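Q: What would this complex look like in 3D?
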Amino acid sequence: MAAVIKVENLVKKYKNHVEALKDVSFEVEGGSIFAVLGPNGAGKTTLLKSILGMLKPTSGKVRTLDNVPFPNGIRNASFVPEEKALYDWVKIPKMVKIFASFAPQFSFERFEKLSKRFNITMNRKIGELSQGNRTKLYVSLAFAQDVALYVLDEPTWGLDPLIRHEVLAVVKESAVKGKTVIYSSHILSEVEEVCDQLMILKDGNLLYKGSLDDLKEKNNANLSQAFLEMIKGDSK
Amino acid sequence: MKLYKEWNSIKLRFIVMLLLMVGAAVAIVSLRNFTINLLNSPQMRGYLKNTPYKGFSMILKKISSDFSYYSFSQWFGKNYPQLAALVAVILSFSIFSKEKEKRTFYVVFGRMNRWEIYSSKMLIGYLSLVTIMFSGSFGYLLTALVFNYHLSFFMTISWTVMATVGAALLYQIGAYTSLLFKDQIKPFLLDILIYAGLYISGIFKPTKFLDIFNYMAKGNVLRGNGIDVLTTIVICSICLAIFVGEYFQFKYMDL
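A: Here is my prediction, written as structure tokens for the whole assembly.
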């Protein structure tokens, strides 16, 4: 399948001179589940935001779904950010109505199915939701959009094992339907469960890009061991 | 244009400010007789006899006999522009800063492009501001009609247009400061500081032209002069320049 995301020599320096990404290049194939891994401060969120056009690259090129994403973003993509911040002052049904008013290809029917799957209690104010319930709601809203690309930053944060399993199932179903999923998580076991391809970042540098099987084979270990070896090995 | 989200963000503040503006307008007309009786009371007359400023009693006499003058001194030249500044700051200070502080820009970004986000926020703010301003002046005029007081429509519309244009500039300044900060308190305080600065500049001759409140509450209208067209055009141009500049700043900023 053709690449839906092409990143060439991407560098991102913030105003405080922190270099979050250092000459990162990679491609993501359409219809795949692509994991972005790395320790805290590796540049994962910066990379996801660059792919979606929220951040201006300092240098290098980003193309997402055949578009330059900065400054206007990608309409055919749906993003679940790390923070899961929604409009605290409204109740869930109102939030859904507001979201549907601007989100492209949003389906109430799809949202209803997902909310049942994730066991969302509807008549509650957003501001009163726990972290787990916010995550469930955000993921439901994002997947209620029928788009080509889903970008998920810690999409299982705060979820119980049952709902986590459901979210991973939704991610896998999307890939089967030909959608591309970019998935960032600290929980390596779930990354191992869903992803085909992955990249490992550390201090803004790309340490590895390839298939999960290759990584395991090369290191003769499971993902967790291979990941730790790579991160530690780079520190030596 | 996707305005539903922005309308829901601003709705409560809009309703509160609308009620405050219309309530104040109705109260000022309704309390006219009470005010005049108070001014003509023996205690007040006794006080005025001893005041060194003799023009004061003439002003009070004019307030009692001329409803247009009463309207200017109590509403269009005083409370109306002051409330307009309050409306401008309340509608503008959190327009961008709240989204930054709460990190909710990610909900809309991508699903809407930057122009859609920016224009929907600004448009809803401007529509709310204009509605509140016109409700304040026409609420005043209608209440005056109910009480059988005469106030010229031409004067009312002149004051309304100038106060609204002035409020639009204050709103645009507020929207710009809102873009600069990642919390809501700083733009609010900066707006108050800027408004106070503009007001104080009216005291000094070289900076008198900066006193937007003097323009918003033009006494010349009482003499049948109507809208100050040149100043209105200049203020609208400044508004437009800030609007465009702010958009380009928003367009190329990291979210």
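A: To summarize the key features: Chain B touches chain A at residues 2, 4-5, 8-9, 102-116, 251-252, 254-255 (CB under 8 Å). Residues 114-146 of chain B form the longest helix (33 residues).
Q: Very helpful, thank you.
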